[in-house]
Amino acid sequence: MNWDWFYYLVAGWAGVAVITCIVLIAFNIRSPYGRHTTEGWGKMISNKWGWFFMELPALLIMPILAYAGPNKADLTSMILVGLWVFHYVFRTLIFPFRLRTKNKKMPITIVVSAIFFNGVNGFLNGYFIGFHPDFESFIALNKGVEPNHLWHFTIGICMFFLGMIINRKSDKTLIGLRSSSKEYQIPRGGLFNIISCPNHLGEIIEWTGFAILAMNPAAVSFAIWTFCNLAPRSLNHHSWYKEKFSNYPKKRKALIPYVL
Ligand code: NDP
């Protein structure tokens, strides 16, 4: 593996993730969407359409690049693109329109920065599969699943789907809380009994699984970004719950059961 511009770009991008995470936690910065939306972030856009536009670049860019390049579309690329599209069809076209946050808005600044974020992640993951000469030297399942590749394929795909189930089930519970009241409530049941944000934990498990399956730098950088985005957000949600509800369960952690 020769380090070219792509590897430097991915490493830099992952470095930005780590720095962002440290800054968000150190200065207790709350990304201003959802419950943390505040005035002063400029023009606002509908929450639902905000989500749609934020996620669209990832849905489109990754598969287009993956198949636009000279690399052969093999079983490995089909699995990676298939999982990615499976996630982003839901996140872009279904999730936003299930939200029950009527008339809620989010700052356009957030939407624009998320479009950039998803565009870069979609570009890196799609480019590596479609164009990068090293892609075929990573896992090439169509050449036969070799025993030394089988472990990360199996673990990765199991984690991906386990994370997706946790994420979707938890988001469904949270969105469902809005059917009985317009106000925020304390979520209960399942993983909510031990952590405040199982939806975020599920998302982190999902993309860590994708990275283990893909074993390529672009997928690893996206897993790092997911953790660096969602760990601070979970900590913010957790302290917000404790501030808002005096009866918030004391033993509940933010993101990692019994730990964080
Ligand atoms: P939240 O948990 O903040 O909110 C999810 C939905 O549930 C929102 O509609 C929210 O309403 C509602 N909700 C949450 N808690 C309650 C409650 N206690 N009572 C009533 N309603 C509630 O999720 P995020 O907005 O942080 O993320 C949404 C999805 O996007 C998640 O699946 C997350 O994993 C994913 N995501 C992925 C990222 C990545 O880097 N891969 C980055 C960010 C998000 P409201 O909006 O009004 O608060």
What is the CA–CA distance across the termini?
36 Å
Provide the gyration radius in Å: 19 Å
Q: Helical stretch count?
A: 7
Q: Give the beta-strand count.
A: 2
User: For the largest beta sheet, what order do the strands appear in spatially?
Assistant: 1-2
Silhouette: globular
Poorly predicted runs are: none
Ligand inventory reads:
NADPH dihydro-nicotinamide-adenine-dinucleotide phosphate
Structural class: mainly alpha
Describe the structure.
This protein has 260 residues and is mostly helical. The chain has 7 helices and 2 strands. It has a two-stranded antiparallel sheet with strand order 1-2. The two termini are 36 Å apart. The model has no long low-confidence stretch (mean pLDDT 93). The structure holds NADPH dihydro-nicotinamide-adenine-dinucleotide phosphate. NADPH dihydro-nicotinamide-adenine-dinucleotide phosphate (NDP) binds next to helix 5, helix 6 and helix 7.
What key phrases describe this protein's structure?
single chain; binds NADPH dihydro-nicotinamide-adenine-dinucleotide phosphate; mainly alpha; about 260 residues
